[in-house]
# Entry
Amino acid sequence: MTKNKTLINFGAGPAALPQEVLSAAATAVINYNNTGLSILEIPHRGELFDAILEESNALVRELTGVGEDYEVIWLPGGGRLQFAMIPMNFLAPEATAGYIDSGHWANDALKNGSYYGAAITLSSTRDSNYTSLPLWPQNIPDDLSYLHFTTNNTIYGTQWSNIPAANVPLIADMSSDIFSRQRDYRSCALFYAVAQKNMGAAGVTLVVLRKEMLQQIQRSLPPMLDYAQHVQHNSVLNTPPVFAIYVSLLMLRWTKTKGILQIEKDNNEKSEMLYAEIDRNPMFYGIVVNKDHRSKMNVVFRCHEASKEQAFLNLCESNNIKGIAGHRSVGGFRASLYNTISVADVETLVSLMQDFEQNNK
Ligand SMILES: Cc1ncc(COP(=O)(O)O)c(C=O)c1O
# Structure
């Protein structure tokens, strides 16, 4: 059973998954590892799921290079629950946390912080509609409980090319670019990523945190909102999304087999090809994002003449290219080039853009 091979899904998430991952997931729904049980039926306590968690956690450690001084947990509630859990756990009422406000999700994280303590904006590009990354703050106050930032801004199409230095615990939302390039994950005290972009199906969020962060939890919290409880119960405090975690395991295996080096090489090639095509003809296509801050994951662009955009969307639709419309707050187009998208997929898009240009000059 294969999905439509000619269809290319450039959606920002839930995003395209490799055919082999989809096939393995489909098989597991019918009969998981020849157990006669569906993956949807296996108990979340017991050796079958223990083995899934153990292998997933080991692959996360291997792919990110974090050691035994970090904990790996899988949580429900999406990125938005992390926006709330981070201050709930690490920001005491009289304390202050810093946020870099680089886009919609970064701003949402910031707003959540202020429910629990003082959440301050250290740097923001909100006034320029997030078309560039904010400056990294030069003097980060030493007494901040943590500094939160978003490595890739999914909606606006900007990305930090590396993880900047911080003199306080650094917390990173890596939801839309985890495993997309080599990166020093160890410079973060905590990083997290929703699964539905580079890592699997919606329903689960990967959280990796330095063990010593658990000492910083001062509030008395209900267990489901307390990182220490999830660590203590090895991600099975409640009945976890077993299937979503299994799909993440399939994606982690795929990521390891392809290798982060090759993934990064392809991501560079894909994004360079698409940006080059857009830049080649500034009278037809355009980009508002600062050139130095362009994302390699979400390429946000538009037609120079906005009136032509719907025609291009229609052309994409009739050529089986999906998910290309820009976020409703930005408009235009957004091609999400997550790890599953191949160089050939981007070549197909570029050639369609060229046809459209020829026929609509
Ligand atoms: C960078 C980033 N963080 C957080 C989120 C929110 O994730 P969720 O919808 O799972 O809460 C998204 C969603 O696209 C995102 O792109």
